[in-house]
Amino acid sequence: MAIEFNCPQCGVAIRVPDAAAGARGSCPTCHTKLLVPQVAAPPTQVAADEPIGQQPAAPPMAPPQAVVENPVPFSPAPPSTPPGQFIDAAPVGVPNGFPGEQSVTPQFETPVAPVQFPGPPTPTPGQPIVPASSSVAARVRRRSKGKKSGLWFPILCGVALVGGIAWMYLQQMPSLNGDRVAAFIKNEAMKPRIVDKAMFDVPDDIRSRVLDHFAENRERVKSDILETQFSAKDAGLEVQILTGSQTRFVRFPIDDDLRKWYDENYDLLESPRARLLKKSLVAFVNDWDVAIRNQQGVEDILLYRDSVGLAASVDGLGFNVSAKVDQLLYPCVYEDDGFLYFPLPPSTKKFKIVGTHTNGRKSKFPGEYNVTVKKLKTGK
Fold it and tell me: Within the chain, which residues score under 70 in pLDDT?
């Protein structure tokens, strides 16, 4: 037996199995949220003059077979979350559940409405039907042909206009591909950057304790690729980027095309960097506060080199590009008004600038440059 009901919104007939009673779903036509009705069994009629328990059993009656168009299968909705428990929503763009898990959201199958074609006109009662003569039909065909041929000119003009606008737009778009030139510089340390103390979203006493520690003790994170130094000034946390034992800084100029695109997409590029830095600063200060009070080090200092040190030393563009040497990625570690800086092996002669982070995550930069490296005799 099935439960039959109509959508209260569009009136489409819906049939679902008995097991779906009380379940929730959506209309296949208008997608209105629906609750499958509960069908109660009819009460047993007992004759007044017959004692209970001696009534003859009534013959079973076949349920009425109602004609329902477009019967649709129905799968019951999953059980709701118990009170006091919450399910975290997946980030935007990430499918819910684990990889390979199928959706369990109940859906009605969309009925296919019959296609109706217009039939011949219904004659008015009492009015004779006059067939079109061959001469009239011929004039109609000639007139239709003339109208169709007359449409070609405005269509061609429209196509030409759209093509011209598209060509002009492409000519004005900045080029984010092609060959570029960069150069090694002699500088082994970049100018320090200050992270203003107002950016630390922590209690004042914790922030002051951590900044006082860095004012008296410089903390360095060293590797063969890069060295990052943390200290403090009155204005806030000071970050300085230095080359590693096996790298030199390569300076890549931001040309007019790249600058134009950068200015047009500044918020798109800058927002993820600012969010990462703000979030990482809270964890950075709290971890160091615990370490200072317990007189011990911080285990995740290498992580903070990237999420705090490098994020504070670049802007939106530098945060979204890396240098690709063979199959190795080197992040942009410093950015100023006209240049991007990458720590690369001194033997590097060619590399690519790509929109990929060192962890493999795609960035907001859509271009790719083929860069030839020149050596400079003087520093910056």
Answer: 1, 40-153, 162-174, 376-380
pLDDT of residue 313: 97
Residues 374 and 351: beta-carbon distance below 8 Å:
no
Give the amino acid at 67. Answer: V
- Shortest CA distance to 307 belongs to which of 328, 324, 289, 285? 285
Under 8 Å between Cβ of 319 and 349: no
Please, which residues have CB within 8 angstroms of residue 185's CB and are 6 or more apart in sequence?
A: 248, 249, 250, 251, 376, 379, 380
Sequence spans of domains, the chain? 2-35, 178-375
Rounded Cα–Cα distance for residues 80 and 87 (Å): 10
Q: Which helix (H) or strand (E) holds 342?
A: strand 339-344
337-346 burial, b if ≥16 CB within 10 A, otherwise e? eebbbbbbbe
Q: What is the pTM of this model?
A: 0.56
State how far the Cα of 107 lies from the Cα of 123, in Å rounded to an integer.
45
Tokens 């209970």 correspond to 52
Contacts of 52 (CB under 8 A, 6+ apart): 46
For Cα atoms 313, 309, 268, give the angle at the middle one, nearest 5 degrees. 55
Spatial contact of 183 and 253, defined as CB atoms under 8 Å apart: no
**For 18-172, where are the E strands, in sequence order?**
24-26, 33-35
Q: Are 228 and 220 in contact (CB under 8 A)?
A: yes
pLDDT for the residue numbered 212: 96
Residue 116 is predicted with a pLDDT of 40
**In contact, 310 and 223? CB cutoff 8 Å:** no
